[in-house]
Amino acid sequence: MAIRRKTYSELCVGYAQVPRGILVRTPLEAQDAVKSLGKNCIFRAQVLCGHSGKLLFEDGLRGGIQTVENLEQGLDLATRMLNRQVTSENIHHRSLTVNQVLVSESLVHEDQWHLVMTIDRENYCPVVIISKYNDSASQDEQMPQNVSEKEFSFTFSFSQGITEDLVSRISTSLGVGREEMTNLADVLTNLYKIFREKDATLLEISPLARLSTGLFACLDATLVVDDDAAKRQPDIFRLRDTTQEVHDEVRAEQHSLVYIKMDGNIGNIVNGAGLAMVTNDAIGLHGGASANFLDAGGQATKETMIQALGIVMGDERVKAILINIYGGITRCDMIAESIIGAAQEMTLAVPLVVRLQGTNSTEGLKLLADARLGLHVESDFGRAAQRAVELAQP
Q1: 272: region left, alpha or beta (phi > 0 left; psi from -120 to 50 alpha)
Q2: Using CA atoms, how far apart are residues 148 and 168, in angstroms rounded to an integer?
Q3: Per-residue pLDDT tens for 148-196?
Q4: Is residue 300 scored above 80 in pLDDT?
Q5: Closest CA relative to residue 16, chosen from 211, 161, 160
Q6: 1-18+108-242 CATH
């Protein structure tokens, strides 16, 4: 779960230096915020879309991070940003509405870096990844293309955290003087404290700036918290804004389904994340493209199938659906009964291919064939994927 930048700034109070900021919902509030913070301010559209600098507004305004130099500019810019639709290459298949803008003070800085704290899944430990922004990149141009090619990566121990040796190596790589190392150590230590205490999977500081005073400040940030930490982090998850998320993904989650919208036209319903990924690959191998990733889990009841089929068929791009089930603990005859029950209660608007393999698969396939619902029943994985691709053709 990702949280808004303003929310992250509030979490950082007492941990790291962040610019003063005011969250606004109307142009007049934005004008008052500029008056309060000073003439030079940064406007940041509050949408969950990755790099907001790449946003395209409906009136042609480019960039969700903008610099304001006076009250008139603030009023005009807020009018163009607030309650406007935006699109971005990071927002698939939809647009988002900017309901809030974060107005923050512009801090004078000498150098700026892009810093990421995440998990190194190959080495099973945290990692800090740092790269320097090009000198020409202004605060409203903090995007990947403005990051230098040279990237530094530092793994460290969960238990030891930010050590003197780690700070020394990072400082050497960044060209930070000895007199500034103490402040950098404090910033890194506090960032890791947030990362660990909040069960984060990603903490992105964009940028980490060295101010004219020699101190370091986190000018902008993104915090992503592990979805499985909801019970441990109730205060964080209460901040969730589902209006910024894909509606069908939220709906699927409410029914214990894992659904991710993709770019193709073949819907998938699979039990198990690994099998779902292989199914996407098999469809691609046969010349097709998946419209979604949907893991129905091990409890594929009739109600689960109704919800899964409803979500997938609700996508107008879908021209065929592949249900791919491997029965281990889950019995294929039970899955077949669930599919039959769901199909009898729904109108199947597109061809449906069903592949069953594993425990009681013979019985399950027979049940599907005897039901005479017009389903395309297959036992072979490759043939099922190929059939789905064929049926999805115009």
Answers
A1: left
A2: 21
A3: 558 899 999 999 999 999 999 999 998 888 889 999 999 999 999 999 9
A4: no
A5: 211
A6: 3.30.470.20
